[in-house]
TrEMBL record:
Organism: Saccharothrix espanaensis (strain ATCC 51144 / DSM 44229 / JCM 9112 / NBRC 15066 / NRRL 15764)
Domain Thioredoxin: 48-182
Record field: transmembrane: none
Gene3D superfamilies: Glutaredoxin (3.40.30.10)
SUPFAM superfamilies with a match to the protein in the record: Thioredoxin-like (SSF52833)
Name of this chain's protein: Thioredoxin domain-containing protein
């Protein structure tokens, strides 16, 4: 009988020890997860920072429509900037088109800037035209790009009705994530 009590006591001690080890492992995993979340890099700054007002601009779309800062008054506007010769732009174009198709307000609430000569960006224009108002600027530093302080490509932003950049980055999800939920 004393052997049975000793074995039971030993098993109880092992179970308690196992619980302490498990709690320690869980605590370490929580700490590592929290540290990884804090260390997550911010999106690269490819255009003006969040909360900044978009500069004044006027531009013609490929459909000969005039757009400017007043376009934001209708509500949240999704903006995408693409350049000729930019492989990242080519990779992210389909995601932008899909997001634009589902964006509230449709084509009137989506602006796309394509930088390059008309001949060089035919494919991008064709993909974007059904879902966005497309502005073409032959060189970087045009009025549209300057208004958004574009520094890299691709660049995406969500602009509110007051003309303030709510969120921006190099991925469509950067523009959509911390901003107004659509």
């Amino acid at each position: 009988m004393s052997i049975l009590i000793a074995v039971t006591a030993l098993l109880a001690v092992l179970c308690v020890f196992n619980i302490f080890l498990t709690v320690g492992v869980i605590r370490r995993l929580r700490d590592k997860t929290a540290a990884a979340e804090r260390a997550r890099p911010e999106p690269p700054k490819v255009m003006m920072p969040n909360g900044s007002p978009v500069g004044t601009f006027t531009a013609s779309t490929v459909d000969e429509e005039q757009v400017g800062t007043a376009v934001f008054a209708g509500g949240p506007t999704l903006v995408g900037v693409f350049a000729h010769g930019c492989t990242s732009c080519d990779e992210r174009l389909p995601e932008f088109v899909t997001t634009a198709q589902n964006f509230p307000g449709g084509r009137d609430r989506v602006l796309a800037l394509v930088i390059g000569s008309a001949e060089d960006v035919v494919d991008k224009r064709a993909a974007l035209a059904p879902v966005a108002k497309v502005v073409l600027e032959e060189r970087p530093g045009g009025p549209f790009a300057t208004a958004f302080q574009v520094k890299g490509y691709p660049a995406f932003a969500l602009v509110d009705a007051e003309g303030l950049v709510k969120s921006s980055g190099t991925l469509v999800e950067h523009a959509m994530s911390p901003a107004i939920r659509v």
